[in-house]
Amino acid sequence: TQLLEQSPQFLSIQEGENLTVYCNSSSVFSSLQWYRQEPGEGPVLLVTVVTGGEVKKLKRLTFQFGDARKDSSLHITAAQPGDTGLYLCARGDFGNEKLTFGTGTRLTIIP
Amino acid sequence: NAGVMQNPRHLVRRRGQEARLRCSPMKGHSHVYWYRQLPEEGLKFMVYLQKENIIDESGMPKERFSAEFPKEGPSILRIQQVVRGDSAAYFCASSPLTGQDQPQHFGDGTRLSIL
After folding, report:
1. Which residues contact B61 (CB under 8 A, 6 or more apart)?
2. pLDDT digit string, tens, across residues A18-73
3. DSSP letter at A68?
4. Which of A56, B33, B60, B84 shows a CA-CA span of 20 to 30 A to A15?
5. pLDDT band, very low/low/confident/very high, at B101 (cuts 50, 70, 90)
6. Residues B41/B107, Cβ–Cβ less than 8 Å
């Protein structure tokens, strides 16, 4: 089983602050996808990273894929209440179509 | 621009009954994946299908669960003789192409409750 650990599990911060959440594995993976899920809804794809060291930006969100392809981070600048949700990372593995999801970081932004 | 459509959104069954969950992929997508999300847990892969073929069912329980994706119509996840432990949110995802870096787009799920 290819485990994917996310940290922190819960994070509650004030509006306007910056934050970083992490996604780590003990083994190399081919790609990583970040999703956000709100209560009662399905995960919504934010980004896919496939190249070691890759950095992608989506407005105030910055995604980084580690050089060794074992970890990824999501940094949010000037957090807003609309950023509240469950953030999930999911790894893709070589020769395998399925996604393996992490346990998630539940983020709450306090107005 | 309809996304992945799942129905019903909520399904209540009594122990021993059958549950049928439907998933229509995004237009142009021929790859369908089913995942299960138990309360307070992450999503777990169940099965990957292409039209008329099951490609990977390594996450499916060995008994009572089956899936299909016929040439015409939606993909169906079928659970026979449901038990309390089957209560969960079942999500379907689709992608247009094969490959481990192809993004999967999710529906809003079916929440199955077993009485």
Report:
1. none
2. 999 999 998 888 888 999 999 889 999 999 888 889 999 999 999 999 998 899 99
3. T
4. A56
5. low
6. no
Which chain B residues are within 8 Å of A30, Cβ to Cβ? 100-101
B104 C-beta neighbours (distance < 10 Å), count: 26
**DSSP H or E run through A104:** none
Q: Locate tokens 């999703």: which residue?
A: A35
For CA atoms A44, A3, A100, B46, give the dihedral sign. Answer: negative
Q: What amino acid is encoded at A6 in this protein?
A: Q
Under DSSP, is residue B73 helix (H, G, I), strand (E, B) or coil?
Answer: coil
Q: Which residues pair with A69 in a beta bridge?
A: none
Interface of B with A in 49-108 (CB under 8 A): 55-56, 58-59, 91, 93, 98-101, 103-108
Average per-residue pLDDT for chain B: 92
Strand partners, A6: A23
Instruction: Please name the residues between 29 and 48 in chain B that touch chain A, using a CB distance below 8 Å.
Output: 31, 33, 35, 41-45, 48
Of A48-52, B64-68, B98-102, highest mean pLDDT: B64-68
